[in-house]
Structure formats: structure tokens, C-alpha cells
Design a protein that fits this description.
It is a single chain. 32% of the residues lie in helices and 32% in strands. It is built from eight helices and 17 strands. It has helices spanning 10-23, 36-45, 66-69, 86-91, 104-120, 126-137, 187-193, 240-251, and strands at residues 2-6, 28-33, 51-55, 57-58, 61-62, 76-80, 94-99, 144-149, 152-157, 161-167, 170-175, 180-182, 199-201, 206-209, 213-219, 223-228, 236-238. It has a five-stranded parallel sheet. A five-stranded antiparallel sheet has the order 12-11-10-14-13, covered by helices on one side. The longest helix has 17 residues, at 104-120.
Length: 253
């Protein structure tokens, strides 16, 4: 198996390389890279490896930015000391997430996972296999979100969230206790990460929790206004094209 290592700590990179070869002598380490820039240059000018072990925090930024500059078409195993990036990692070809300091057992299990997934999807073509592999391990409905607040990470239970909203191109969540926190996900992503039975995308600006809805009223041009049981600075308007769908969603409770 041809493996690329992206890691900016030389000792860790060497240890990982030696551990991989110890577990499987047939492994070929095609290169060891230590930055976003060198990784992008390599991936743009060389054949795609069969697997990448990738640290998340590199000297020149988050390795997740690599995916914004080059299409990575192989599975990625993330090795990092910071688990707050786990969801983003799994959205970017991630099939495993190993916390540092890792040991041989953790690395071996990650390779076994790769072998299992490869054999399971071997009947499909490369692109179909990769998509199925990622979908198989990608988290779907979340029960909690970690938010940054005054330099700390705070867990917020999804059940405590009244609605998500966008303002000035930034995404926020608003809780039933009327606390507002910024969150690093788009509303499109949040739709996939929350229960569709509990949260509804009212419009481009709001994703609302059924439990927060106090009442709905008719509005101009066959639209609806949604009134919540918590504070909201903007009117939440459901357009006429979504009116029937929204009412059906409400009546299914």
C-alpha cells in the first residue's frame, strides 16, 4: 500500500512511518510532508496515494485547507491531539481519527479498518467505493455541538437549541435559555447533522426546532410567519412554495 504522511513534527512522522512498516512490511511511504503548501504541490503533481495519514494542525495552518485547493480522492486517517475538528475531518474523506499520542495498536486498527472497507466495497468502481466508504462512517444526526466561547470549547446539546440562523454570512445557534453562540457550519450542513423530524429549514436564514414553535400566522401573499417561544430579532417567514410542506411537517408530530 502506498501511503503519504502529512505531519509537521519530525519525530512523530518518523515514528509513524516506522510503525506502519513494522505492522505491514509491504507498505511504501511515498513521502513525508510538513505543510499545507508542500502537500498541495505534491498532490497536484504526483499520483494519488492509496492512503494518507494527516495531522490536522500544521505549522502553516489547518490541513483541512488542503482539500480546498486540491481534490483528494483517497481515504484519509487523521492523527491529531485536537478532537474538535473530528466532524470536519470525517466530511473530508476521513475514515478514522487517531488522537495523539498514538500507539502501535491504534495504527494497526486504522489499517485493519482500511482493509475491511476496501474489501467490502471492492465490487464498485473507485469513485463509488470512496463515496460509499465515506458515507458509511460519516456521522449523521448529532446530539451535541461544541462551540467556541471566550477561548473555551462548550458543549451544547441539540435538545437545548431553539434555532440556527445566519446573519452577516455567519452561522449562529440560539438556545432555549436565550444564549447565542457562533458555529462553524453552514445551515446546509446543519440540516444533515440534525433530525429532520425535529428541525425544519424555514428559509435561507433559519433552521428551527419544532419545540420552539409557539404559533404560526398567515402572512402576505400566502406566506406564513412562524412565532417562537424564545427571543428572535427577525421575522421567520415561510414562503408560499414551502407552506404546504411546512404544514405537513408540523402535522406529523
Amino acid at each position: 500500500m502506498k501511503i503519504l504522511i502529512i505531519e509537521d513534527e519530525p519525530r512523530t512522522a518518523i515514528d509513524l512511518s516506522q510503525t506502519l512498516k513494522k505492522i505491514d512490511p509491504s507498505v511504501t511511504i511515498v513521502d513525508i510532508l510538513d505543510s499545507i503548501n508542500s502537500s498541495v504541490n505534491y498532490l497536484q503533481s504526483n499520483p494519488m496515494p492509496e492512503l494518507i495519514y494527516m495531522d490536522i494542525q500544521l505549522a502553516d495552518g489547518l490541513s483541512l485547507d488542503i482539500f480546498k485547493q486540491v481534490k483528494v480522492t483517497c481515504p484519509v486517517i487523521f492523527c491529531t491531539a485536537y478532537d474538535e475538528y473530528a466532524i470536519d475531518a470525517f466530511k473530508l474523506n476521513g475514515i478514522d481519527f487517531i488522537l495523539k499520542p498514538f500507539d502501535q495498536n491504534a495504527i494497526q486498527k486504522s489499517l485493519e479498518k482500511v482493509d475491511f472497507l476496501r474489501s467490502y466495497y471492492k465490487k464498485d468502481d473507485d469513485d463509488t467505493r470512496l463515496n460509499k466508504l465515506i458515507d458509511a462512517i460519516r456521522p449523521t444526526v448529532r446530539s451535541c455541538f461544541l462551540v467556541n466561547h471566550k477561548g473555551k470549547m462548550i458543549p451544547v446539546a441539540v435538545a437545548d437549541i431553539a434555532y440556527f440562523f445566519i446573519t452577516n454570512e455567519l452561522t449562529f445557534l440560539f438556545t432555549f435559555s436565550e444564549q447565542k453562540y457562533s458555529i462553524d457550519h453552514s445551515l446546509e450542513e446543519l440540516e444533515q447533522m440534525t433530525d429532520a423530524q425535529q428541525f425544519y429549514r424555514a428559509n435561507r436564514q433559519f433552521l428551527i426546532n419544532f419545540a420552539a414553535i409557539k404559533e404560526i400566522e398567515p402572512y402576505f401573499n400566502r406566506k406564513l410567519i412562524v412565532k417562537l417561544s424564545v427571543k428572535c430579532n427577525d421575522q421567520i417567514i415561510v414562503g408560499k412554495l414551502k407552506k404546504t410542506e411546512f404544514q405537513a411537517w408540523l402535522s406529523e408530530r
